[in-house]
Amino acid sequence: MRYQVLIISGIHLEYGLLGVWAALALDEWVRGVSMIWHWRCGRWQAKILVA
Question: What pLDDT, on the 0 to 100 scale, is given for residue 31?
Answer without folding.
Answer: 92
